[in-house]
Design a protein that fits this description.
Elements (H helix, E strand, L loop, with lengths): L15 H18 L11 H12 L3 H10 L5 H9 L5 H27 L2 H12 L2 H5 L7 H19 L10 H17 L4 H26 L2 H9 L1
Helix pairs in contact: 1-5, 2-3, 2-4, 5-6, 5-8, 8-9
């Protein structure tokens, strides 16, 4: 009598601890930012909201302001405009918190990719949530959480599909286009995104220089030579 085939656990079970953590953290994060006013006037919240209104209705007083002071990238103000956050401060705060919660998923994913275990990703997320910055940075109507989400999305995609050191998958043109779009979105969220673009350019240049050396070493490998003879 043949043995009964083993039942595979549903894929979600591997991520059950993260789902539990999100179920606990997300309501707390949303409650923390829930308010119908600004947390402070000493940050760039007013500037982002004003730019969002300029991109939307283009009121005369806003147009005058934008011509002199609108030096912020447009993607976050467009997100406020699309969701109604440019007119409703509660919605604006929720948009910021939503990107913060989504970033937790990608923090877990990226850490799990780098350390090779979901448990490592969970530990990193918990450590992140224990930092004051993880909470205080969500109080303002600013682009930090969106920037973190998009940056991690680009890094996760690169690790999963484009980096031969971490992935055996052959990247497609769609993968490269998606990666390029994510890098562009990072820069359109915060000007500091140019640092990620430059970092990737340096990384790609370094790998390009190492590749000929690696190919030369493989050619000198007797085992590789014998394999070519057999083929």
């Amino acid at each position: 009598m043949s043995a009964a085939p083993k039942r595979r656990d549903p894929a979600w079970r591997a991520h059950a601890p993260l789902l539990v953590l999100l179920a606990l953290a997300a309501p707390l994060l949303f409650a923390f930012v829930w308010q119908d006013g600004l947390a402070t006037l000493n940050d760039d919240s007013v500037s982002y909201l004003t730019l969002a209104r300029y991109l939307g209705r283009g009121e005369a007083i806003v147009v005058q302001w934008a011509g002199l002071h609108a030096h912020f990238p447009p993607l976050f103000p467009l997100a406020l405009l699309a969701t109604g956050g440019s007119e409703n401060l509660r919605i604006a705060h929720l948009v910021v918190a939503a990107f913060g919660v989504a970033a937790l998923v990608l923090i877990h994913r990226f850490a799990a990719q780098q350390f090779g275990r979901n448990l490592a990703g969970l530990i990193v997320v918990v450590a992140f949530l224990l930092t004051p910055t993880a909470w205080i940075s969500l109080k303002g109507i600013m682009s930090e959480s969106m920037y973190l989400f998009l940056s991690l999305a680009a890094l996760c995609l690169h690790a999963a599909r484009l980096d031969p050191a971490q992935s055996a998958v052959k990247p497609t043109a769609t993968d490269w286009v998606a990666f390029g779009l994510l890098l562009g979105c990072v820069y359109l969220t915060r000007a500091a995104g140019v640092a990620l673009i430059l970092a990737y350019a340096l990384h790609a240049g370094r790998r390009k220089q190492e590749r000929p050396c690696g190919a030369f070493l493989r050619e000198q490998d007797p085992a590789a030579g014998m394999q070519r003879v057999r083929e």
